[in-house]
Design brief:
Elements lengths: L27 H8 L43 E4 L11 E5 L10 E2 L22 E6 L4 E5 L5 H4 L5 E2 L11 E2 L1
Antiparallel strand pairs: 1-2, 1-7, 2-4, 3-6, 4-5
Length: 177
């Protein structure tokens, strides 16, 4: 459609990332503010990048909704999003996940022998779900709700193997929190 690339990229660019498309963001909250055109919120110029997206979709499961004034706060955003998304990514890789999942526990590479490795929770967020479970949204649009006892790579990645680091120009497994 001739529109700009909207997926976020890493704020700290590596030389191989210099030509990656996309704006840079320091958090998923700032990214979602851009998607919702927060700068023009409440004006006749308000034009969100994604039709139907508003801040109410970021709340739930104990995460309070945006108050309607001021900037969107991390407290009103239950989602974390990966950076440097590329169309060549495996459909099973989660692109969104609830903020209670520690981003550093996600994989950049999964081999057949890695399925037992644990995902773990970010203890700084009690909501959503505390340490009881998490939700992942996959590139394919599929959603998986994982209870804490199943927080392992083979469940999160649907028993798929991949190496996101194989081509640095495609995708780095860093996440916005």
């Amino acid at each position: 459609m001739g529109l700009g690339y909207i997926w976020p990229k890493n704020v700290v660019q590596r030389p191989s990332e210099a030509n990656l498309p996309g704006p840079t963001f320091t958090s998923s909250t700032k990214y979602f503010m851009k998607l919702h055109d927060h700068k023009h919120l409440g004006t006749t110029n308000h034009s969100p990048y994604v039709a139907g997206f508003d801040y109410t979709t970021l709340a739930g499961a104990g995460v309070p909704a945006y108050s309607g004034s001021g900037p969107l706060l991390p407290e009103n955003n239950m989602w974390t999003i990966i950076e440097n998304y590329h169309a060549d990514m495996n459909d099973m890789i989660p692109i969104l996940f609830t903020r209670n999942v520690a981003a550093e526990s996600l994989a950049a590479k999964v081999t057949e022998s890695d399925g037992h490795k644990q995902l773990y929770f970010d203890t700084s967020w009690k909501t959503p779900f505390s340490n009881k479970g998490a939700v992942f949204i996959r590139k394919s649009g599929g959603m998986i709700k994982i209870r804490s006892k199943y927080m392992i790579w083979k469940v999160a990645y649907n028993r798929q193997t991949f190496d996101a680091n194989a081509d640095e120009n495609i995708f780095h497994r860093t996440c916005l929190i």
